[in-house]
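hey so i finally got around to running the thing on that chain from the lab meeting. sorry it took forever, my laptop kept dying and i had to restart like 3 times. anyway pasting the input first so we r on the same page abt which one it is
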Amino acid sequence: MALTKKPVTGMKDILPEEMQIRDYVIGVIKDTYRSFGFTPVETPCMEHIGNLSSKQGGENEKLIFKVLKRGEKLNLESAQSEADLVDMGMRYDLTLPLARFYANNANNLPSPFKALQIGSVWRADRPQRGRYRQFTQCDIDILGEPTSLAEIELILATTTTLEKLGFSGFQIRINERQILKAMAAYSGFDEASCDSVFITLDKMDKIGLAGVTKELEEAGFSRESVNKYLELFAAVNSGEDSAKAVALLADKLDGYLDEAVRQNLQEIITSVERSKTADFKMVFDPTLVRGMGYYTGTIFEISIPEFGGSCGGGGRYDKMIGNFTGNDVAACGFSIGFERIILLLLEQGYQIPEQPKKIAYLIEKNYPADKLSEVIEKAQQARKEGQQVLVVRMNKNKKFQKEKLLAEGYEEFEEFFNQ
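ok and heres what got predicted. didnt touch it at all, straight out
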């Protein structure tokens, strides 16, 4: 039986041209985040299945790649449930592993702790443009900082990174979980129905206001509550800037929304707008839902027009670490959509700036051994001077070989013949 040469569905081989861009982008991300004081950490690619299935990962928990027990622990004959077969799973994001990491190592870490984590995650999702079953996530998180300083730093670090990669004119959409709840309560939805309401609201960008109205009414909610709810969104879309839009909505929610929530959100929006260096806009979006399973406060998302969808997001998850330790710790994070950023850069024909000169030394196959060391010494000296030198044997079809090397960015060739 012949082996299968294609990768498994939803995963891909990465060719050199893309790999160079990926390495460069990761370098930009790391350098920028380090300049904001974030410290790299690493967590295992597998987690305890109980942690992954603890109802903190929302919809992602349906997409876990589960790992069978091994050796004597795996007893197929006596197994009565999945729990008898599975004890680990591949991580579906970097947030829950970080929460476990912090709970386990807090005594050895500064407070607050600014974490940078880059690594592969796995989800048994339906593959589509910019979405794979194995993909890279790039997360920054601030643990132990309860004030708006965390959100401000996360947004500025992320947007500065996007600016360095050539992106402009994008939006950071922002909302607050407490605002979502206050709007639902104001409209007359009971607390038990909120999740259902938010799931429908999350479809606003796909089905529009009319679609949300229809779906809520079909779900059995009263027309009075639905109309009252949707009138709130219409009021916010009045052309006001984001900080004023927050104030406008908060005034309507008087008695349902804590004043501190309004002040905190306005402080984030105003501070970011005043201190940003990148070309983007903060947009208050009361339809933004995100992560109902674990976000507790602010939520935000990157919207890049060229992609037509989210290119990253995050928010505050102040309850997650407490599930490990019994004591809640303020936590907020932002994940840049690495795979989608790479996709956009490839589609734009992105060229890595300030790359070292790439030279190829093509050596004839019967080139004498005593002269080969001279060529290698020459290559070593060029490398010492900062050039990137490839030393290879010359193919029979030299023209095709050069075409391939040109495609990889080699701009100069030296040929060595036996003369």
